[in-house]
Structures are given as structure tokens and as C-alpha cells.
Specification:
The chain has 196 residues and is mainly alpha-helical. Helix content is 77%, strand content 0%. The longest helix has 17 residues, at 179-195.
Length: 196
């Protein structure tokens, strides 16, 4: 299999299976074969893999190389990848900014606001994290269980245990197999009983 389409198909399969080394190898083969006509969606997958593998300098250089050429329909994904890079570097303010900008471009799922809230929380900005995660919940989408779980965590950080418990119960209603949320509910029941 040596055509670009075959390699892209293999790359997609490797991504679905979280096979980072295989995905990196395939992307680099694609880049060599198709230098004149870069597949920016594949490049963003490559950047995500580089970040996951800790090759942050290479990820940053790759983002810088494509920044001026990124198609408009991928600009939110580009900003999200740059936010991931910033977050891995501990630059949470920059990460939050990138995620919020990505959400302005594509707010259909609320996913970028979940990431922005996490970055705000990492900065110690719990109230802002709560605000952002509530915005993500209002949008809805496939990230609702994660968003409610994160909101619960932000509420626990503020000692708002009853509200946190309600959020974890919402997580369980969305994902009955979420043992993490069940453990938190048990913990919060204990603390609420102790407070009574």
C-alpha cells in the first residue's frame, strides 16, 4: 500500500486504535510522498501525536509551518491543537485563549469550552472554569458527561458539595458505567452527612 489514500486510511485506523507510533510513521510517509499538496487534517493529527509523545518542539514547529496556510474549515481544530501544545507546556492562559478562540469559530459541540475550562482551572481560576463549563453544558453535544464531571470537580473545589453530587448523579444518568462518578457520589454523601 503506497498511495496517499491508502496511507491516509491506515493513518485513520491507527488513530482510532491510539497507535501513536504507527500514526507518526504513516504521517511522515505521507508528508514525504505528498509535499506539494499537504493534507492539513492529517497534519493536525500528526501534531496531536507529537504532543502526546512529548515532542513539543517538533509539534510547535509543525504548527508554525502551517499556520498561514491552514484552511478556514480547520482553523478551530488548529487553535485547539495549539491550545493542547500550550497546555502541555504549562502555558494555561495561552491554552485557554486558543480554546476560546476555537469555540468562537466552531461552537457546535462545546468541546473547546471544556478544554478552556480545564485550562482556567489549572490557573486556579475556579469561578471562570465553572462559568466556561456551564457554557459548554448549555451547548450540549457529546461532551456532556465529561462537562458535568468537570463541573462537579470545580464545585467540590469550592466546597459546594450538594451541587457537585447532583452533577455526578447527572454523569451517572448519562453514563451508567462511570465508576469514578459513583465513587464521588459515595464520598460526597459522607461529607454531606458529616456536615449535617
Amino acid at each position: 500500500m503506497s498511495s496517499i489514500n491508502d496511507l491516509l486510511e491506515l493513518l485513520e485506523d491507527a488513530e482510532e486504535l491510539d497507535q501513536l507510533a504507527t500514526a507518526r510513521h504513516l504521517y511522515e510517509k505521507i508528508l514525504v510522498k505528498d509535499e506539494a499538496d499537504e493534507n492539513y487534517a492529517a497534519t493536525l493529527i500528526y501534531v496531536a501525536n507529537l504532543v502526546d509523545l512529548g515532542d513539543l518542539n517538533h509539534a510547535e514547529a509543525t504548527l508554525a509551518r502551517i499556520e498561514e496556510e491552514i484552511p478556514e474549515d480547520l482553523s478551530a481544530a488548529f487553535l485547539s491543537q495549539r491550545g493542547d501544545l500550550q497546555s502541555h507546556r504549562g502555558n494555561y492562559a495561552e491554552a485557554e485563549k486558543d480554546y476560546r478562540e476555537a469555540n468562537k469559530i466552531d461552537s457546535n459541540e462545546g468541546e473547546y469550552l471544556v478544554f478552556a475550562a480545564q485550562a482556567a482551572f489549572q490557573q486556579g481560576e475556579v469561578a471562570r472554569a465553572e462559568y466556561l463549563i456551564r457554557e459548554a453544558i448549555a451547548i450540549g453535544g457529546e461532551v456532556l458527561d465529561e462537562a458535568y464531571g468537570n463541573l462537579a470537580g470545580y464545585l467540590v473545589a469550592q466546597k459546594r458539595y450538594q451541587e457537585a453530587k447532583v452533577c455526578y448523579e447527572k454523569v451517572v444518568s448519562l453514563d451508567a458505567d462511570n465508576d469514578h462518578a459513583r465513587e464521588w457520589i459515595e464520598d460526597l454523601n459522607k461529607v454531606l452527612k458529616l456536615q449535617a
